[in-house]
């Protein structure tokens, strides 16, 4: 993997393992453009708590933008072109989102990333995400670009099996984690978010996860 040492982030990329890179603060130069765009996305497709196939309510509220949106209900996990709540197409991916995703992917050694889905997760304090793989995408050759905004969180970086030990990676506002290639199907998750306050986002953490869901447009 070629790491682009001329990335816009102020700190050099850190390899978590082959194929997986942590970019401290890489999203910071984008935040002023990201936040109003995020508001527009959330107005068009409001945040909601989805149900898992097992009947549990997800503690993080979510929405999507892009051609495809990730959804969950009693029938399973899948990507849809329309928001099941409004019946409308998911809002378009804002240009600032796309620029950041492509910039971060390039800095992590994945040039030419063209995401068609951005899952927005909003964590209030105590919300969490259990260890899982991102495996509903058709195109596993593209990386995942995961952007953290707002209050801090502890990211869990696991292995190829759910039972593998997970490394704890503290994430702050503006941090980006990118994984693909041999690390594409690694288990990952988020520990319950601690009560905290962020000057731009209040008592919330927002994660933007960029993916290539389909092999064609
Ligand atoms: O919130 C995060 O940092 C991770 C989100 C995630 O794992 C996912 O959406 O699949």
Which stretches are low in confidence, meaning pLDDT under 50 for 5 or more residues running? Answer: 1-8
What is the end-to-end distance? 27 Å
Strand content: 25-35%
The biggest sheet, with number of strands, parallel, antiparallel or mixed sense and barrel status, is: 7 strands, antiparallel
Task: Give the distinct bound molecules.
Answer: 2-oxoglutaric acid
CATH architecture: Sandwich
Protein name: Alpha-ketoglutarate-dependent dioxygenase AlkB
Keywords: Dioxygenase, Iron, Metal-binding, Oxidoreductase
Organism: Bordetella genomosp. 7
Pfam family, one: 2OG-FeII_Oxy_2
Molecular structure report:
With 217 residues, the protein is of the alpha+beta class. It has a single domain, classed as Sandwich (Jelly Rolls), CATH 2.60.120.590. It is built from 2 helices and 13 strands. Strand 1 and strand 2 (20-23) form a beta hairpin. It is globular. The relative contact order is 0.22. Bound molecules: 2-oxoglutaric acid (AKG). 2-oxoglutaric acid (AKG) is lined by residues 119, 121, 129, 134, 146, 148, 155, 188, 190, 207, 209. 2-oxoglutaric acid binds at residues 119, 121, 129, 134, 146, 148, 155, 188, 190, 207, 209. One of its GO terms (biological process) is oxidative RNA demethylation. Residues 114-214 form the Fe2OG dioxygenase domain. Fe cation binds at residues 132, 134, 188. Keywords: Dioxygenase, Iron, Metal-binding, Oxidoreductase.
